[in-house]
Specification:
mainly alpha; 6 helices; 85% helix; disordered N terminus
Length: 163
């Protein structure tokens, strides 16, 4: 009977990364990348004021519960489509394609959620203008971050999350 109690412990892989570590890594990436982009977008929408950090935090939290989870789905979808449509292309080139698609998609969505949080729906023209200004201001930074991430961090993160 004693050997039956030890057997399940023998099946536990000591090299398996704890789920909490995976969650913390993903949250750290979301905070650094999303937080910096949303900070820039909030600044573009509202400028710097006494309420900037509160405005940024509210925009970040809105994006954290809406846009960022969708980003994981888009990343998986874009990676799958790139593998299927570009099977003879190197992984590095596919990762660049995925990075550009992710940057455009995520910046658009984060600019929209930030504009909604900061401007609201009272004027569709104002909402559109603030969305577009924030998107155009943040897109160069977003493209840079996503391409660097796709080429250097993404392969390592994928291996880490699978471990």
């Amino acid at each position: 009977m004693h050997s039956q109690q030890v057997l399940p412990l023998a099946n536990i892989d000591p090299k398996k990364t704890p789920v909490i570590h995976k969650i913390l890594v993903v949250l750290a990436m979301m905070t650094i990348m999303g937080g910096s982009l949303i900070g820039l977008m909030t600044y573009i929408n509202l400028g710097y004021s006494d309420t900037f950090f509160n405005d940024w935090l509210m925009s970040f939290l809105l994006a954290a519960v809406t846009v960022m989870p969708a980003g994981f789905i888009f990343m998986a979808l874009f990676t799958y489509v790139a593998q299927r449509c570009l099977p003879n292309t190197s992984e590095k080139k596919r990762n660049i394609v995925v990075g550009v698609l992710m940057a455009i998609t995520m910046e658009s969505a984060m600019a929209l959620s930030t504009a909604i949080n900061n401007i609201g729906f009272s004027s569709h023209a104002a909402l559109f203008n603030h969305w577009l200004e924030a998107l155009l201001a943040a897109l160069p930074l977003g493209l840079t971050l996503m391409i660097i991430t796709s080429l250097t961090i993404k392969p390592k993160i994928e291996r880490f999350l699978k471990s």
